[in-house]
Amino acid sequence: MAHKGLLLVLSGPSGVGKGTVKNAIVKNKVFPFEYSVSMTTRKPRPGEVDGKDYFFVSEQRFQEAINQGELLEYNEYVGHHYGTPVGPVKKMLAEGKDVLIETDVNGARTVREKMPDGVFIFLTPPDLHTLHLRLEHRGTESEDVIMGRIREARKEILVMQDYDYAVVNDTVANAVDHIKAIVDAEHVSVKRVIDDYRKMVEEE
Ligand SMILES: Nc1nc2c(ncn2[C@@H]2O[C@H](COP(=O)(O)OP(=O)(O)O)[C@@H](O)[C@H]2O)c(=O)[nH]1
Ligand SMILES: Nc1ncnc2c1ncn2[C@@H]1O[C@H](COP(=O)(O)OP(=O)(O)O)[C@@H](O)[C@H]1O
After folding, report:
1. Which of 5, 81, 82, 122 makes a 20 to 30 Å CA pair with 13?
2. How far apart are CA 22 and CA 101, in angstroms?
3. Ligand 1 centroid – CA 78 distance (Å)
4. CA–CA gap between residue 121 and residue 108 (Å, rounded)
5. 69 CB contacts (<8 Å, ≥6 apart)?
6. Which structural domain, as residue segments, surrounds residue 194?
7. Facing residues of 167 across strands?
């Protein structure tokens, strides 16, 4: 039975561990998925690769992408723009692949309006103190920027009722297990497979 891939939308406060958990799923081959690379106007961090972590673009190029309708959604987050290129997402889903996109909470709301079949997962820290420590430990932002991101985290957690699932990233292994369970369950949810079964009966 072939159907469209799942659109997995992953959000969560800066520093919660979205990248770490995603990389663990890939490294341990927990389940196959395609990662949709976002576009951003923020500068690359040391070690980040253009076209792999993000498409790092100028503000002018980002505005052009908006005007040309290249983005499924976009948002401004603490002084920079971030957006999801729509073309690759639609193509990969049509090919039956599961696609993971990362967005902040505002972006997720837009995706929900445009693609309501998505599976919306919010990754949370065990508590805000741990989140602060993780951001400090990562060491990629100044204390000022970290404070801005923690302020944003408080707001994001208050609107997480828009998501389907909340996964606590206490340990990476636990978070990966929970996400795997969600993906497995979504693959067999009746609303996704009903058309296949109807066809099976009608073609008999
Ligand atoms: N709307 C939107 N947000 C995104 C996208 N890609 C990443 N983000 C969010 O932008 C915020 C900042 O991302 P980033 O600067 O990479 O910081 P990090 O989350 O700490 O790694 C986070 O909330 C990300 O989830 C995107 O394509 N669209
Ligand atoms: N479960 C965890 N336990 C402890 N540290 C973690 C965990 N998950 C992520 N980290 C660490 O927290 C920091 C932020 O993780 P990262 O994946 O960059 O977050 P995000 O992509 O959500 O901003 C990194 O230094 C990472 O090694």
Report:
1. 5
2. 10
3. 10
4. 10
5. 86
6. 7-36+98-202
7. 123
Here the ipTM equals 0.97
Closest C-alpha to ligand 2, atom 9: 17
What the block records as the tokens of 84 is: 């999801």
DSSP letters for 123-172: EE-S-HHHHHHHHHHHT-S-HHHHHHHHHHHHHHHHTGGGSSEEEE-SSH
Atom number in ligand 2 closest to CA 23: 17
Q: Is 18 annotated as a binding residue?
A: yes
Look up the CATH number of the domain holding residue 157: 3.40.50.300
Residue 130 lies in a domain: yes
Reported as a single tens digit per residue, the pLDDT across 102-114 is: 999 999 999 999 9
| Ligand 2 atom 24: residue of nearest CA | 138
Q: Is the pTM of this model over 0.90?
A: yes
Q: Is residue 52 marked as binding?
A: no
Phi and psi at residue 35, to the nearest 5°: -100, 125
